[in-house]
Design a protein that fits this description.
It is a single chain. The protein contains 7 helices and 6 strands. The longest helix is centred in the middle third of the chain and has 22 residues, at about 80-100. The chain has one domain (about 10-185). Strand 4 (about 125-130) and strand 5 form a beta hairpin. It is about 40% helix and about 20% strand. The strands form 2 sheets. It has a 4-stranded parallel sheet with strand order 2-1-3-6, with helices on both faces. A two-stranded antiparallel ribbon has the order 4-5. By secondary structure, the chain is an alpha/beta fold. The radius of gyration is 16 Å and the shape is globular.
Length: about 180
């Protein structure tokens, strides 16, 4: 599916659910609930004329809110959670495949899949792996559970796209990465 994107092609990114709807992010009583969308990302996509597809949030759709913070391994051990992630990843991969195969003129091209760093399910390069304190984690350079499952499903459908991570502390870095990927296609 890679290959040059022609100027007339429509570019789309698949975004972690909470980029468009922060209310699904983990929170606890006493912690400020995030609201709305992450404007820096949405404004940048709009200015680049890149569309967005919202991916599901496995944590919210399985546990709701408020929910306890968990590591990748704690989510992996929740009965039924891995099956839930695989089911969501399969549906998302099929959705992305449909966008690319059913579009003829203009052709839709998936530019990237965007996850959220420090997420146990949607982390791309930095994922909480184990607890080192009550609310402190050891992070490892690895994908979260949903991103691993999605990558496998995309590969099984012959789709190869970059996976980029949004660090909420540095949204401008993601914007630059999307520009680079979109212009390099």
């Amino acid at each position: 599916m890679r290959g040059k994107i022609k100027p007339e092609d429509l570019k789309v990114v698949a975004l972690a659910h909470c980029i468009l709807n922060q209310s699904t992010r983990w929170w606890k009583d006493g912690k400020e609930l995030r609201r709305g969308l992450i404007r820096e990302v949405i404004d940048a996509l709009a200015s680049m004329r890149i569309g967005a597809v919202q991916m599901p949030c496995p944590e919210f759709s399985f546990c709701g809110n408020p929910r306890p913070s968990r590591t990748k391994e704690e989510y992996r051990s929740l009965p039924g959670f891995m099956m839930h992630c695989r089911r969501l990843a399969k549906a998302m991969a099929e959705n992305l495949k449909g966008l690319t195969t059913l579009s003829k003129r203009p052709k839709i091209k998936i530019v990237a899949v965007v996850g959220i760093e420090r997420s146990p399910t949607c982390g791309v390069e930095l994922t909480p792996y184990k607890r080192v304190g009550r609310e402190e984690f050891e992070y490892r350079r690895m994908k979260g559970l949903f991103m691993e499952a999605l990558e496998e499903e995309l590969e099984s459908l012959g789709i190869s796209v970059p996976m980029l991570g949004l660090d909420l502390r540095k949204p401008e870095a993601l914007v630059n990465n999307i520009k680079n990927v979109a212009h390099g296609c």
